[in-house]
């Protein structure tokens, strides 16, 4: 199979404009003749479904939650990037493009990233028009804050709930189209198979999660916008229902899966507290604007803190190691996520961790400096040029509360510690997946008519995603890319007519889904689905996590293959198929996670370099930084499914070519 990325010719800055100008169109009077399925209703899916509904297509949208408002996009807190340069600090489309390529460690497709930067400003305009309550500065202009991997302020935000507000904006647009009858919404439905007719994506098999009924739905094009696969690790910051099933089903039907080993570990999560924990909680990266990350300089102080004999507030300033500021003075606490995560791991591995959990893993995120700084500014602005320490702290806390109040409240409810008074405890955790289904420039997979958007595809982030870029990509795909590229594909479908769900391909797909469901329900094993999911998560975190090596990856591949055998022979799924059955839902999803986990380890094993979130311990410099191999690994690794034995999967390579960017060592010092 030869990969054709369909990148347009011409200068980089004009590729997207010229490409749009030459795409085929569907006239408004022909759009009601065409059906589109959208799987997933987060930012990418909701914006796409709303856009196509407004254009006049017949849209069927599916989500496994009880409402699109429950999509995991709601959990994004810190902000959304856009090159508006409102702060007049030198930002531009080119700088956003460059920061994203560099942040991804030169493993992203240049043309896609530039398009993302180009449309970023329009996203903000769209969301403001929808009523998204972005923060504003004193003059009434939209405010910005900094995020990791940049030296400008380009992140638009709504307190610490940006994802929620953006999703409500997209949901309002979607709801309008539902009310007009242009979008039919299927809540509590999960896609379990893609249906192909004559090689083209023509529909899906979905399970009604309330009744258990299997349903056939046809369309002229299918859009997968079902999010990422971080829950392969069991413990992650993702919602517990987040899964890879939609992406994995189309992979098994012929869509290549690209760069599965590129997983983002987020540096600011609440540390693991026990073996029975079911998920992890993210503290927004925006907090790194105001918080300083540190551990004690002395091991004995770290040991005393873990033993409960010493409080962090008792550690003097000279006895604190602000290790990010020490190692990366140019960016300090705002280095990219992969860099910050590895630095925290290095300190904890060396014995300086401060959390009294099984692994002693944890560092501090301290706001005391910011409280004093902003408190003094606030006092001065009020005309008090000689404020007391008490007044400074009171005003500083008020400033923090206005900026991040809901985040601080959330942290206190979870940990029972007041982050205004004592530093937050944080540690890296699995957060985002840069890998995903391979798509071309038009966001179409290797299956004609099957498009993939948002985190479900691989296209825009390379080996590491910069903070606040996920929301940007989801809305860019849904509002400003897919309406053009899907219409281009559908221009040849005007005369196709309604696609019947009585075709043998639909019957076969439904039969295959029913067989898998029956297999689990009739298995009569002895162990729960979670038992196997947790075991998979431990293998993945320990051997395909923040640090990877050849021996561990080979062990992971073998151990996951063995786990798969045990899973199918000994899993117990109670209940029946014709009812609400959460254990059956989990079993179907974990089956896909197990196969994906093995592919992730294989992908990490073949990539003999360190880049972004993929850190091979054999490939690092004397200071512990990543060592890329641009001569041999400057490619997208896209895997073709070759049957249930995942070790037989075939690797295809898309060479990455850079016209505008000069590849260099990534330096944040």
Automatic annotation (TrEMBL):
Membrane topology, from the record: Peripheral membrane protein
Pfam families xref list: FAD_binding_2, Succ_DH_flav_C
Compartments reported by the entry: Cell membrane
One GO CC term on file: plasma membrane
Reaction catalyzed: a quinone + succinate = fumarate + a quinol
Residue span(s) of domain FAD-dependent oxidoreductase 2 FAD-binding: 35-471
Key words, A-Z: Cell membrane, Electron transport, FAD, Flavoprotein, Membrane, Oxidoreductase, Transport
Native organism: Flavobacterium piscinae
Protein name: succinate dehydrogenase
Cofactor section: FAD
């Amino acid at each position: 199979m030869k990969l054709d990325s369909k990148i347009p010719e011409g200068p980089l800055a004009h590729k997207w404009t010229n490409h749009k100008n030459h795409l085929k169109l569907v006239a408004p009077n022909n759009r009601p003749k065409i059906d589109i399925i959208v799987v997933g209703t987060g930012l990418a899916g909701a914006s796409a479904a709303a856009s196509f509904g407004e254009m006049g297509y017949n849209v069927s949208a599916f989500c496994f939650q009880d409402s699109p408002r429950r999509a995991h996009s709601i959990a994004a807190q810190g902000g959304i990037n856009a090159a508006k340069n409102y702060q007049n600090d030198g930002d531009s489309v080119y700088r956003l493009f460059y920061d994203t390529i560099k942040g991804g460690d030169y493993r992203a497709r240049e043309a896609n990233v530039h398009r993302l930067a180009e449309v970023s400003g329009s996203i903000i305009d769209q969301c403001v028009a929808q009523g998204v309550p972005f923060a504003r500065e004193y003059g009434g202009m939209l405010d910005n804050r900094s995020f990791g991997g940049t030296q400008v302020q380009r992140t638009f935000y709504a307190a610490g709930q940006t994802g929620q507000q953006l999703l409500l904006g997209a949901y309002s647009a979607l709801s309008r189209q539902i009310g007009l009858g242009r979008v039919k919404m299927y809540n509590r439905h999960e896609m379990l198979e893609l249906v192909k007719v004559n090689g083209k994506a023509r529909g899906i098999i979905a399970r009604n999660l309330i009744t258990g009924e299997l349903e056939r739905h046809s369309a002229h094009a299918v859009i997968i916008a079902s999010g990422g696969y971080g829950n392969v690790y069991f413990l992650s910051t993702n919602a517990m229902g987040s899964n890879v099933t939609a992406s994995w089903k189309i992979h098994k039907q012929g869509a290549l899966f690209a760069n599965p080993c590129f997983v983002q570990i987020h540096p600011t999560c609440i540390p693991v507290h026990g073996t029975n924990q079911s998920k992890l909680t993210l503290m927004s990266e925006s907090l790194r604007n105001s918080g300083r990350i540190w551990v004690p300089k002395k091991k004995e102080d770290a040991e005393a803190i873990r033993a409960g004999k010493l409080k962090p507030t008792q550690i003097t300033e000279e006895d604190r190691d602000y290790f990010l500021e020490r190692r990366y003075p140019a960016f300090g606490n705002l280095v990219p996520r992969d860099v910050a995560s590895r630095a925290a791991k290095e300190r904890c591995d060396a014995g300086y961790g401060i959390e009294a959990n099984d692994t002693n893993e944890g560092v501090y995120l301290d706001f005391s400096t910011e409280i004093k700084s902003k408190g003094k500014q606030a006092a001065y602005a009020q005309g008090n040029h000689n404020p007391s320490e008490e007044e400074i702290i009171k005003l500083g806390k008020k400033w923090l509360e206005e900026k991040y109040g809901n985040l601080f409240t959330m942290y206190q409810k979870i940990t029972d510690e007041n982050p205004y008074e004592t530093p937050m405890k944080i540690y890296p955790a699995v957060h985002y997946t840069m890998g995903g289904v391979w798509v071309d420039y038009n966001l179409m997979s290797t299956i004609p008519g099957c498009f993939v958007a948002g985190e479900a595809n691989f296209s825009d982030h390379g080996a590491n995603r910069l903070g606040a870029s996920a929301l940007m990509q989801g809305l860019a795909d849904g509002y400003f890319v897919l309406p053009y590229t899907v219409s281009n594909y559908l221009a040849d479908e005007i005369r196709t007519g309604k696609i019947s769900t009585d075709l043998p391909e639909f019957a076969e797909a439904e039969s295959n889904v029913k067989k898998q469901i029956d297999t689990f329900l009739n298995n009569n094993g002895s162990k729960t689905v979670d038992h196997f999911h947790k075991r998979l998560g431990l293998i993945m975190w320990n051997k395909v996590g923040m640090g990877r090596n050849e021996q561990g990856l080979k062990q992971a591949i073998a151990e996951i293959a063995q786990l798969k055998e045990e899973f199918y022979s000994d899993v117990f799924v109670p209940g029946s198929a014709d009812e609400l059955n959460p254990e059956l839902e989990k079993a179907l999803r974990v089956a896909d996670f197990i196969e994906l986990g093995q592919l992730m380890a294989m992908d990490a094993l073949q990539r003999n370099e360190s880049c972004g979130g993929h850190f091979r311990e054999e490939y690092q410099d004397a200071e512990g930084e990543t060592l890329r191999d641009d001569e041999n690994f400057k490619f997208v690794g896209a895997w073709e499914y070759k049957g249930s034995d995942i070790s037989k999967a075939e690797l295809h390579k898309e060479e990455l070519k850079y016209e505008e960017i000069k590849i260099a060592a990534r330096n944040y010092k």
